[in-house]
Amino acid sequence: MTSTATATERGTRPDITADDAKRPERGDGDLRIWAFAVIALSLAAQLILVFTKHIDGDEFLYLSRVYTYGRGELSAPLQNLHVHFFGWLPWLSDSEIDQIIAARLLMLVIEAATLALIYVSARRFASRDATLFGVVCYAAFNYVVAHGASFRTDPPATMLLMSAVALLLASPLRWPHTVAGGAAVAIAGLVTIKAVFYLPVIVALAAWRIMEAPDRRAMVLRLAIGGAASVAVFALVFEMHAASLAGAHVGNAAAAAGGSFNKVMTAETIFLTWPYLLIAVSGSPLTFAAIGAGAWGCAREARASPGAPRRQALVLLAFAFPVATLLFYHNSYPYYYAFILPPACVLAATAFDWIGWNDGRLKRVLALAGAFVALQFAVTLSPGQRHQRELLASVHETFPAPVPYIGPNSMVSAYPQVAFFMSTWGLESYRAAGRPVLRDAIARASPLFVIVKNPALATALLPGRFDFPDAYRLLAEDEKALRENYIQHRGDLWVAGKALKDLAADEARTVRFLIPGNYRVESPSPIAIDGMAHAPGDVATLSAGSHVLKSGQGLQNVTLRWADLETTPDRPR
């Protein structure tokens, strides 16, 4: 790693001019063409995946909150700021899939801005060629290819936080830079509480700028103005956002944030998420090797050099902190890597200035990075989105108007979901609480259908067909409530109904209904409900509670299906 000159505040770009003399750029430009080709390949692959990759549960949840806000039912102020910026999505299309695709396209633009910000930030410490390698380290990362343009909190928060980093690296650093950077950090914190993981980078940069400034008191004042602006923007935007919600309360928000923080911070994380880390390392060896080499070079510089070079090396090491959160952050799933990697890729860029490889070897490295991008694209490409589109089309055809439902991940985002979000974290919290929330929700809200796209729901409604760990199963009361109140209609779409086997004429059977309404009789011959005869195809209006059923003649299997459906079942039951 090459030492850099002490920063000045005289209007020139410190470090860059001095370093250019020591690190001459490669004159033929071939390496830059190769680097740009890998970056373009990554963005092109992601553009195709925007239209083809299955929609993740978090993306459906993110969209559903836009609808919840539109209905005036959203009450949680944290991590829901996006509802003010994506209110146009429901007007774009009637399909949740098309709405998320449109949002993904915007997220891809945001990711491209993040790539530019990595370049701007890394250029402060590295030559142009090395800086491009740092950008490649991010663009070619396997989980960035798969999740970099996902519709969730991470892309905008990453872009905002890297904007703050780039602004703090501005030269000369003026108070407008610190104010804009502070505002970016504040908005990122409202987008996701994970923004706190960037604070060590921000604090280290601020300390470095103070140490390198000719007038430290003036620099402290500028940074203090930026810090005050950050607090003010956070408070103002939070209050405005909370005021627009239904029953939002600052104390509840703080408690929720504290509970989430305690839940996701655990020393056992590395043992829970190591398979994802293994896939990341094996699928993106260039990025991890460059980060490791950059960290090793900075550590060596910090030990061997005094003064400004040591301070710069130390601040660059701080850029690795977000990646270190993989050791203790519970939700270190693939999409999380796209959020934490940009600062580390700035550190990675510095490695390419001192490694000293020749152009031929670096081109082979870039070719390998491009091959890994293509491989990840092939792995991620799947027909999953088509299947989701078919299921959602069936739901909207069956229930043209919004009705309450049960699902694992807010898949029918335009309709109100009464269940909890059935992620691993959600199921763990549900099991710890020990309350039959689904049974209670069925009795309270009368959800008319269930989307069975989750092992917990599938295990409940199709017992014996799946081997699902007991630690993540629904409570017995909830499984029973689901089995007794819903029947399969079309594929993964189950609707309100009863399936009664061996209903006899000489034996009255008492059946409890949690969902009141109209039920259509599906049976070979007439039946009696509370003493009234009903022929096959008749509609019976039933109240919540117990009803007595008997077969009109002989032993028969009877189905009572919710009558107000616009589609017929896949097959008669």
Task: Give an overview of the whole structure.
With 573 residues, the protein is of the alpha+beta class. It has 3 domains: 25-380, no CATH class; 384-489, no CATH class; 498-562, no CATH class. It contains 23 helices and 11 strands. The chain has helices spanning 16-22, 30-52, 57-70, 89-92, 96-122, 128-139, 142-147, 154-168, 175-191, 199-212, 216-243, 250-264, 269-283, 285-304, 307-318, 321-324, 334-354, 359-380, 384-398, 424-433, 437-445, 455-461, 476-485, and strands spanning 405-406, 449-451, 486-490, 493-503, 509-513, 517-522, 527-529, 532-534, 539-542, 545-551, 556-562. The strands form 2 sheets. Strands 1, 2, 3, 4, 6, 9 and 11 form a 7-stranded mixed sheet that branches. Helix 21 packs parallel to helix 23. The longest helix has 28 residues, at 216-243. The radius of gyration is 29 Å and the shape is elongated. Mean pLDDT is 89; it is low at 1-23 and 255-259.
Low-confidence stretches: 1-23, 255-259
State the helix count. 23
Largest sheet: 7 strands, mixed
Indicate the percent of residues in helices: 55-70%
Beta content comes to: 5-15%
Query: What separation lies between the terminal Cα atoms?
Result: 72 Å
Our Rg estimate from Cα atoms comes to: 29 Å
Q: What best-fitting shape do the alpha-carbon axes yield?
A: elongated
Based on secondary structure, the structural category is alpha+beta
Overall domain count = 3
**DSSP, total strands:** 11
Query: Overall mean pLDDT score?
Result: 89
List keywords for this structure.
573 residues; alpha+beta; 3 domains; 23 helices; 10% strand; elongated; disordered N terminus
